[in-house]
Write a structure and sequence with these properties.
- This protein is mainly alpha-helical and 177 residues long.
- It has one domain (2-174).
- 65% of the residues lie in helices and 5% in strands.
- The protein contains 7 helices and 3 strands; from the N terminus they run αααββααβαα.
- It has a 3-stranded mixed beta sheet.
- Helix 2 packs antiparallel against helix 3 (31-52) and helix 5 (109-134) runs antiparallel to helix 6.
- The chain is globular and about 50 Å long.
- Residues 42-160 form the VanZ-like domain.
Length: 177
């Protein structure tokens, strides 16, 4: 049973490595651009470990009223309890916003807002499916979707702001476009 609980984590790493294999093979990248590609791979691998590796013990959240769907705990009551995990989730996806800017610096703000929904929805739906199938002991939480969105948008906004200052000369070499 323990080995099947690691399945989602293993699949996430395989998908990342396969996708980045092609990105690393692109010729004519500058050393700074290679740093962007490699650090984004490392970042996404750490995020995959944090959100998909099975947890050993789940203590019931006394402050959140969880509902259950076939033994999968979930919370669909947004922003009822703001705790340290709330800020941690924003900090978790802040770097993703930075990488989004380095990959797509000319996105319109509606595109950034829409892209901000993707990580939270993918993470939470994958956690739901993996907990339902192999009991990974994860809680699906709408607050995580909101905080992941906020982190990506804030990370993008910070680098966008810095790119419109004299620091632009430091940021521009790391952009992929």
């Amino acid at each position: 049973m323990l080995q099947t609980r690691w399945l989602t984590f293993g699949v996430a790493w395989l998908i990342l490595l396969a996708g980045y294999y092609r990105l690393l093979a692109v010729p004519n990248r500058t050393p700074a651009q290679r740093v962007t590609v490699l650090t984004s791979l490392g970042y996404l691998m750490v995020v995959a470990w944090l959100v998909f590796a099975p947890v050993g013990l789940v203590l019931p959240d006394s402050y959140k009223a969880l509902s259950y769907f076939y033994m999968v705990p979930y919370n669909l009551h947004p922003l009822v309890h703001v705790d340290p995990e709330f800020l941690a989730n924003i900090l978790l996806t802040g770097p993703l916003g930075v990488y989004c800017y380095l990959w797509r610096p000319h996105w319109a703000w509606w595109q950034v807002a829409l892209a901000g929904l993707v990580p939270g929805l993918v993470i939470e739906s994958t956690q739901f499916a993996s907990d339902w199938l192999v009991h990974t002991l994860r809680v699906v939480d709408i607050d995580d979707v909101i905080t992941n969105w906020a982190g990506l948008v804030l990370g993008y906004a910070v680098v966008w702001g810095l790119d419109h200052t004299p620091l632009r000369t430091l940021i521009k070499p790391f952009r992929l476009r």
